[in-house]
Specification:
Low-confidence stretches: none
CATH topology of the largest domain: Rossmann fold
CATH architecture of the largest domain: 3-Layer(aba) Sandwich
Number of helices: 17
Shape: globular
Helix content: 25-40%
Structural class: alpha/beta
Largest sheet: 5 strands, parallel
Radius of gyration: 21 Å
CATH class of the largest domain: Alpha Beta
Oligomer: single chain
CATH superfamily of the largest domain: Glycogen Phosphorylase B
Number of domains: 3
Mean pLDDT: 91
């Protein structure tokens, strides 16, 4: 085994130790790998996530930003932009400047980090936000800010002074847990809200369900469940509304599903396929009482709308959801239900069922 292969194996070993709960051993390996003169691809980003899950934000951000030197970033067109990268959002660094901010990862990350755009607009002269094709309407409320313009990839760009990807905003703002911007920045389309209110039952607790994420995501097996894992919840007698789109929708046709789940073709037709529009789905979520989901973009949509959301988290979750506790500082209306065994959702689902079986489940949803 050559030296590069040994380093890659060591990084996999560090990740494995973390997944197994050996945080001390994992950190020792992460430190060794990130202190080498020659960079080990992805080592800094993995260590940054380890630190962020633990709440060590100040130590994490420098490692986090080194992900931009990994090949998958260096090969992107945005890496070739001639304007300087925005490494700090301090007022003295961005005052009077036009800043280009663009989506670079999944839609969930973009929704989570969009909360920084209003603050950046206060500090900078102008902010141009470039979102995925088909998502202009979804992010349009950011364009209501006087000096913010929302574009899609493929649109002509105005001149700008600096640029940054959306996922870097928490780092360039040098965020600490106590100063994370408010999560509820998203506004649902009022026409779509009126449409859904006419169709939804009005005399019951209305709960949206999403059980499966993007199968192409590298950690999808850790994050996704099956609709069958949620069957105990369906026995509580409440109204459940499908929010699942694309992969996993076929599970609704299982004849053994314990109750009828409300289904709207508009949802699956608009957030899968080529349009990638989530405007109507966001409005539907705004009309629900509670959303129950695994770690998908739907969790971010509900959180950004300020709706109560219960999320099942993997044993080692995405860094936003921290390593312990039933809350995340990133979403004030989100409650976390953690699995103690990888790929086993029985424990958190049982906990949810007990809460939904209470006399006042909406209070349980909100507390």
């Amino acid at each position: 085994m050559n030296s590069d292969a040994r380093l890659v194996a060591a990084l996999h070993r560090a990740v494995g130790l973390e997944n197994d709960g050996d945080f001390f051993g994992a950190e020792q390996l992460y430190r060794q790998l990130t202190s080498r003169p020659r960079r080990v691809a992805h080592a800094d980003y993995q260590y940054a996530q380890f630190l962020l899950r633990r709440g060590d934000y100040a130590e994490a951000w420098p490692h986090y930003m080194k992900r931009l030197d990994d090949l998958e970033y260096a090969s992107r067109a945005t890496y070739q932009l001639k304007q300087p990268y925005m490494t700090s959002a301090a007022p003295e660094a961005v005052s009077g400047k036009t800043i280009l901010v663009y989506c670079d990862q999944g839609i969930g990350d973009a929704i989570m980090c969009a909360r920084y755009v209003p603050e950046l607009a206060v500090r900078a002269g102008r902010v141009v936000v470039v979102v995925f094709e088909g998502f202009r309407d979804f992010f349009s409320c950011l364009g209501d800010i006087e000096n913010v313009r929302v574009l899609e990839f493929g649109d002509s760009l105005p001149s700008f002074d600096m640029h940054a990807d959306m996922l870097s905003l928490p780092a360039v703002f040098d965020t600490r847990i106590q100063d994370i911007p408010p999560s509820a920045w998203l506004k649902a389309d009022p026409d779509w809200c009126a449409y859904w209110r006419k169709l939804l039952p009005k005399n019951d607790l209305r709960i949206g369900l999403t059980w499966q994420g993007n199968p192409s995501q590298t950690r999808d097996p850790e994050r996704s469940a099956k609709l069958a894992d949620f069957w105990p919840l369906l026995e509580t007698g409440h109204t459940f509304v499908n929010l699942q789109a694309g992969h996993g929708v076929d599970q609704l046709d299982d004849p053994n599903v314990p109750c009828e789940i409300v289904r709207f073709p508009e949802i699956t037709a608009s957030i899968n396929g080529s349009t990638k529009r989530m405007v109507d789905c966001a409005a539907l979520i705004a009309c629900l009482d509670l959303v129950i989901t695994v770690d998908t973009a739907i969790a971010h949509v509900a959180g950004a709308l300020g709706k109560p959301v219960w999320m099942l988290t993997a044993k080692v979750p995405y860094w936003v959801y921290m390593q312990e506790g039933d809350r995340t500082p990133w979403y004030s209306t989100m409650r976390l239900f953690r699995t103690q065994q990888r790929y086993d959702w029985r424990g958190p689902v049982s906990e949810m069922k007990a809460l939904l079986s209470r006399e006042d489940p909406l209070r349980a949803a909100l507390t």
